[in-house]
Design a protein that fits this description.
Radius of gyration: 18 Å
Order of helices and strands: HHHHHHHHHHH
Number of helices: 11
Number of strands: 0
Strand content: under 5%
Distance between the termini: 24 Å
């Protein structure tokens, strides 16, 4: 997941001609490791449902080193970017920790999970690099934001379908509320919109349109072939690799 976030930050830097901004790239990479491990293991640790095995100790040590790296690169950010970083840190904490007595955390707010995660990804991978480099907020930037939100939203739909049997029914994920078939229809429709939005670009380029069309088709295929019996690795490896391949393609052929 951290590599996917890193790849999307790199995509932002390519799209907006940003160079030598290592701070946002590594802040996003190491911050994702910390945030993901915190979200995944915090609740289990607090309820003492897991023992501190050698593997978990290794994960904790990796998270600690990543936290140090995150802090270091955070200090390299510009002042406004630091504020944005704090905002998304707060969202991550809200997503994980119950701040109010007898209240659930945001992760368990019915139907909100997918929007919170997609918002955080767009904020960190798009807005953070742009703000850190003092670039103006243009219509093209908001177009990219909309496309990226759609892409991440659909990728999360794939995770939701695969995790349908494991997720708490009270989460009310999209697939729980409308079923797998309708979820796939929503995802396909959104990916078509993802491609059509490219026509609104003030700097329309046929090669970008072709690349995003290929990206949309690949994502749609992963979505259509997803089901409750798929291995978790189907999503965690193949689906998360989509942003990485997109970035590498632009690096090689862009």
């Amino acid at each position: 997941m951290a590599l996917s976030v890193y790849a999307l930050v790199q995509l932002t830097q390519i799209l907006f001609s940003i160079s030598n901004d290592f701070a946002t790239s590594y802040f996003a990479f190491f911050g994702t490791i910390v945030g993901y491990n915190f979200v995944k293991y915090d609740a289990l640790a607090r309820t003492k449902k897991v023992q501190m095995s050698l593997q978990l100790k290794g994960i904790a040590f990796l998270s600690f080193l990543s936290l140090i790296a995150t802090g270091y690169y955070f200090l390299q950010l510009e002042k406004t970017a630091k504020i944005i970083g704090f905002v998304f840190l707060a969202i991550t904490l809200l997503y994980t920790l119950p701040f109010f007595p007898n209240k659930k955390n945001a992760r368990n707010w019915a139907g909100f999970k997918i929007y919170i995660v997609a918002l955080c990804w767009v904020g960190v991978t798009l807005f953070l690099p742009i703000i850190n480099n003092s670039l103006p907020l243009t219509s093209y930037m908001f177009l990219v934001a909309a496309q990226r939100f759609i892409l991440i939203f659909v990728l999360i739909l794939i995770f939701e379908i695969i995790d349908l049997r494991l997720d708490d029914p009270h989460l009310k994920t999209v697939s729980q509320q409308i079923g797998v078939v309708k979820t796939k229809r929503v995802g396909v429709t959104l990916m078509v919109l993802f491609v059509l939005l490219e026509f609104l670009s003030t700097d329309f380029r046929i090669e970008f349109f072709a690349l995003k069309s290929a990206l949309a088709i690949t994502t749609i295929l992963f979505l259509l072939f997803s089901n409750e019996n798929r291995s978790r690795y189907y999503a965690s490896f193949w689906v998360e690799s989509i942003p990485i391949f997109w970035w590498l393609f632009l690096v090689v052929f862009g």
